[in-house]
Design a protein that fits this description.
It comes from Streptomyces swartbergensis. GO terms for molecular function: hydrolase activity. This protein is mainly β and 72 residues long. It is built from one helix and six strands. It has a two-stranded antiparallel ribbon. Strands 3-6 form a two-stranded antiparallel sheet. Strands 4-5 form a two-stranded antiparallel ribbon. A hairpin with a 5-residue loop joins strand 1 and strand 2. The mean pLDDT is 94.
Length: 72
């Protein structure tokens, strides 16, 4: 089993603990945290996602974040 996340309902109430890949595969709601990094001039950081990750490997992204682990 991979990374565990809390599956939530539409009101963000925890309804179970599931594997993150399973949550993504089934389209189940689960918590994530993201942020946008900007410098004093307002420029947004754009980074390239690692090649070894399961979601959009090698793509450019302007969000920094990830899944929220169980109990986090």
């Amino acid at each position: 089993m991979g990374e565990l996340v809390e599956r939530v309902d539409e009101q963000d109430r925890v309804i179970g603990v599931v594997d993150r890949d399973e949550a993504i595969r089934h389209g189940w709601l689960h918590r994530v945290a993201t942020t946008v990094c900007r410098d004093p001039q307002g420029r947004v950081l754009v980074h390239r996602r690692p090649e070894h990750i399961s979601r959009f490997p090698g793509h450019y992204d302007w969000l920094v974040g990830g899944g929220v682990e169980v109990g986090e």
